[in-house]
DNA sequence: TATGAATGAGCATTCATTCAT
DNA sequence: AATGAATGAATGCTCATTCAT
């Protein structure tokens, strides 16, 4: 189906080139459809972009939710969240890159706002999980949102840095390092 | 002097609009010079951008170096690094945003490479300080580079999240939260 | 029936937006049919437009013919023609606007020619009536065609001007003014 | 100078093809300049069009004003106005065509409004002259505006009709016919 | 040093039309 | 008789860059 071909091509190109350097011609060529077809399925470049980002965020959220279960301890949940995010950020690093970096300027304000809300929701979702586990800890509501945001920034930056390196280290080492950095703070005791 | 007017205008506009949305016309108008003058002083948009980013990174580095002194303990240095970065990221958040986000795509590859090197140097510089303080700790060289990168990502994301909020919390609370998150891991004991 | 729905939609939109600003998509949407259906019933946009204009001119002609009767004096006929045209131009001003303005450019030449002929026929028809009444007057054949054309231009422009005004004057005043202007010239002695 | 070449080309093409069928590419080609040059001198197609129409209306007005003198009788002035308009409409018929027909749809509303005001001013100017000469006559203020509008419509349509004909009649005959039609109504006595 | 008119490749978008079903 | 997904040429516009002065 044309629509899916377009979405796949757009993810690929937006990731590689960013929003502004990706032209609708590029996308059409990559998707092997005529340029007009893009506009049959999407109202414009902005909507196409929004679709991809929205899908991406929802996918991330559901992947994370899938590994969390009610019967897990708070500590297990925190460990799983960190682990799953590293895994997702490595696997979908191009999509992640779109979601975190391309969302600031030069895109229609209303689209930006809707996506911003989605991202805030996602952080609130993570923050909720952290808070739950730490009701008896030092972190309170507002703190935990900053922590959640910072945690994502940390994992993303580390993963990006890892990817850029010429494969000199293993994924396990990345997990270890991030865990060693992050868990001591998130978990009340231990490091 | 025209050149300085151009640089000031470019910083302002690149920060506000990003690389692609800032046009040479905009910069010329903001600097109150004719468009041709830009090309008299810089070979093109890319070089102008590179100049600004290079200046920015050097400024950050020297600001951080200025607060570090030989007679400080490792712990003091780590605390100062974190504190100073929060301060700088809040103050120069637009410039920071350029440095971290606008540098991935759509700029001439050679420029990108040079700037990438500068950034790597900066991370190596931070990593060096961390390593020094932890020669007796668990972190080793490769770990500390990831940590340095992750630390910057964390601080930047948290600050960005802080800035976006409608002023509901104080800067002090931001410092406290980030410290509470980061220091337990970086410093051998304590939280 | 689809065809009628299409014609109705097309009249409405061509009148409101003109030929070029009316898209086949618009027409299909307004008519509640699929886009392909337009091309089932009409060979293209041009033919659809021609159908509407032809229908419109024929309608005008028959409306005018309906008020003219053999037993009327020449003066009566002239008065009726003027009066009826004002009435029609006010009622169908959007259609009139298409017929007089949209027919000069940007439409396939052969369509343009056929419609042009229709318009010339209409003017000849009016001219014939005027001539008949003035066989004993000063106006001769070629004069009366110019007069007929001019008369239509005058009535249209006046009506358009009247319509654009914020309802400050009555239709009666419009009739009076146009009559006061036009009849003295058309009728041998005053009006 | 490029700007003049562009204006000349635009007048020619807008007249021949109308607003929508004239592309900026066409204009650039006709003017022998690069496409970008159009946008260096004009903000867009709309402004280019507005410039031409505004210039045209002002030119017409000043040409008409130039033949009117204080010491002329009202009758002389009316005769001169009619005569001058016929002359102008024949000479600048393409420009006239733009001014009267292309101003209804599909052009930015604000441009349309400004041009509409200019046209209304022009009609008010003519209406003023007519009124002055008829202070003792039957026409009053609102009447004279309609008359002015209608007069222009009449002259334009007649001239257009004249132009379309295969040169079978002389300009003198056109003047005579229009005068014979128009003067009886405008001038209190006589024909 | 500095200017600004001119350029032309590139871009997002529109839209009449086709065709397999 | 009717559909709607797909097309691709055309269009208005942007913008980094050049160059004669």
UniProtKB/TrEMBL annotation, chains A, B, C, D:
This is TetR/AcrR family transcriptional regulator. Keywords: DNA-binding. It comes from the Bacteria. SUPFAM superfamilies: Homeodomain-like (SSF46689), Tetracyclin repressor-like, C-terminal domain (SSF48498). Residues 1-60 form the HTH tetR-type domain. InterPro entries: DNA-bd_HTH_TetR-type_CS, Homeodomain-like_sf, HTH-type_Tx_Regulator, HTH_TetR, KstR2_TetR_C, Tet_transcr_reg_TetR-rel_C_sf. Residues 23-42 bind DNA. Pfam families: TetR_C_24, TetR_N. It comes from Paenibacillus chungangensis. Transmembrane segments: none annotated.
């Amino acid at each position: 189906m044309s629509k899916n071909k377009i979405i796949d091509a757009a993810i690929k190109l937006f990731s590689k080139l960013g929003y502004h350097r990706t032209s609708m011609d590029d996308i059409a060529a990559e998707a092997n459809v005529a340029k007009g077809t893009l506009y049959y399925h999407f109202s414009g470049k902005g909507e196409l972009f929004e679709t991809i980002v929205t899908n991406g965020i929802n996918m991330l959220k559901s992947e994370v939710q899938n590994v969390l279960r009610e019967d897990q301890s708070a500590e297990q949940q925190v460990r799983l969240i960190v682990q799953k995010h590293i895994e997702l950020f490595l696997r979908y690093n191009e999509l992640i890159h779109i979601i975190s970096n391309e969302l600031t300027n030069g895109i229609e304000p209303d689209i930006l706002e809707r996506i911003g809300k989605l991202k805030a929701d996602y952080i609130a979702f993570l923050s909720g999980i952290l808070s739950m586990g730490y009701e008896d800890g030092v972190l309170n509501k507002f703190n935990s949102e900053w922590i959640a945001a910072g945690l994502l920034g940390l994992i993303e930056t580390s993963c990006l840095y890892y990817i850029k390196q010429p494969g000199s280290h293993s994924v396990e080492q990345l997990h270890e390092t991030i865990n060693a950095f992050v868990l001591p703070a998130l978990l009340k005791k231990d490091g």
